[in-house]
Every structure is written in C-alpha cells, then in structure tokens.
Write the structure tokens for this entry.
Amino acid sequence: MPTDTSPTLLITGGAGFIGSHIASELLQHGYRVRILDNLIPRVHGPERQRPGHLDPRAELLVGDIRDPQRVQEALEGVNSVIHLAAVVGERSSMYQIEKYMSVNTAGTAVLLEALLDHPVERLIVASSSAVYGEGLYCSYNGTTYPKIRRSPGQVAKGDWEPRSPDGEVIYPLPTPETKEASPLSVYAISKYDQEEMCRMIGESYGIPTTILRLFSVYGPHQGYANPYSGMLTEYASRLLQGLPVHLFEDGYQQRDFVSVYDVARAFRLALESPGARGETFNIGSGRPYTFWTVTDRLAAITRRQDLSPEVTGTSRVGDIRHCIADISRAREVLGYEPKVSLEAGLLDLVAWIEAEIAERRKVPAPLEVPKPSRLPV
C-alpha cells in the first residue's frame, strides 16, 4: 500500500485503457499515482466523469497535455513520469493530421519543457510498434529486408504479401529494436517524434528516459463501441451481438497481441530496472497470430461459429501486413516475460465485453462465458 513516503508518479493519459491498468499495477506495488487526463468525451462520455474502473487511490487531475500551466501543476512533487497521453489510431490519423501532430508531438513538447523546471528521476514513454512500419522480413535464401513498403498498385490488385525489390515474396521475422524506423501513417510519425524528442531531451538534461514500443494491446476497459478501439475488442463485441467480423485484405495479416496486464507490468519493470535507462524495448507477446486465428478463437468462446467472417478483400490506408515483436531485450534487461496466454486473455476480454453489452441492454442476458482462473493484476 502507498504511504506518505512512497514515490509519486505522474501518468499522463492515465485514465484511459492502458493507463488505468498501469495505475493499478503501480498502486499495488506501493507507489503513489497522480493522473493527468483530459477525459475526452469520445472515450469517457459527454459527462467527462472519472471512469469507474480507475483505482480510487489514484489522484486525478483533469487537464490537457498541451496546457503548460496544468502540466506544471501535475508535476509538483512528482518523482517519475509515465507518458501515455496521445491520440491513437493509425487510419484516422491519415485525415486528422493536425489533431494527431498537435496532441502527440506538440503535447510531448509541452511536457518536456515543463520537465526542465521539474527534473524527475525517470521518464518512461509509451511508443508504438507502428514506428517500424512493416516488420523485419527475409527471403528463402536468408537475405533480410529491414525496410519494406507495399506499393498502392500492388495492394490495389490484391497482392497482399510484401515483396523484395526483385519481386520475390518475402516472409516475416520477429522485429528487433534495432530495425530502422519506417513510419507509414501520421500516427506512427507522431509516435516516432515522441521517441526522438524524449530521447534527445533526456540525454541533454540528464533525465533517464526509457522507450517502450507497444504492440497490439488488448484487454478489459478498451472501449468496445469506440471506432478507434483495438481489433480484438471490436471482433468480440460484434460476435456477442450476433454480427459477423469483417476481415480486411485476406485475413492472414500477422500481429503480436499482448495482454494489457503484461503491458502494465512491463512499465513497472522499466521504472524499476537500472539497465532500462536510455534504452528502447519492444513489449509484446513474442508470438504471431493471424486475424483468422483470433477470430476463430473468439467465435468458439462466444459460441458463434455460425457467423462466418466477411473477408472484404480491401485494404485500409496506413495498414501494414505483418509485424511481430522480438522481445529478447526486454526479457534480458527488464526481466519481462508475458504471463497471459492468448486463450486466457480472450476469455477475460469476452467476459468483460459481455457484461458491458448487457449493462447497456444491447443483448437480453449475458452468455455463460468462463473466466480465466488467474490473470495478473
């Protein structure tokens, strides 16, 4: 339990999906937590009330990351900062360019300027696997391709798999932190901006900084009715309401899906690990899954195998084909090891969404979905 002498952490954007889980993780390990969040209506509703899932022990300040005065107030008495505040979503960033660059890039600049007047012991920054663009690839003969882009013409013809410059189909590998960044969306550019600014200012002013590149995070409290929410949340919600899942392209894209409980623990480990200072880490499960695979497993959990997925055969602007995390550095330096299997995580996700839908009276009564025996909290 936190005490009066416990270190105080500020989590920017901490009332959201990932931030609220990080707050609970830290509070359970003796930290005091303050949150700065603007409680935007799209996520928290028009009333902008404190979310019910946020641990009551966390102090909440309502304010915008771009407001210098509010940021200065939030930093008073703070030992360390976890920076999550951002607008998320790759596809929407391609037509809301100013919004993404304002919140993600300019908002981070405001925080960094404030830190010059309020030095902290640690700065942990939430980045994204989106900075890689496509992941690392190789050919049959072992040649690796660290920077690949699918051309619009190729995608328009339904030729989904990335190819080498010679036109050869290439195959995904686990992507290490050393891979060159190749952002393919405005969102990805803004996250890379965050990384570079925080890394530079941290080195210049002696603020120990750690970057965590998060892969596809899922779990309870991710807004199921929100068009910007994660794919698994959207899929489970549709199945529970008797609607088919829409699979873009051919559904065989590969992603690294990681439980929010594992992600929350990774932030605490990064905060507590001396070797994490000045470093960048992938945070994922280290396992590849196709959209077909997760859809099949969700259909089994919800008992909706009768609802065949609808394959659109179309792509979306800003989408990539494959990206899987190489988490060996996080294992070695942080002692990070994913603990929540995909099966247990999906059971937990479906149980939560089912309760949310029932509460909103979108279905007559909840299904009997077994909950996993133990998930990290």
User: Anything to note?
Assistant: Confidence is low (pLDDT under 50) at residues 362-370. The chain has one domain: 8-359. The two ends are 14 Å apart (CA to CA).
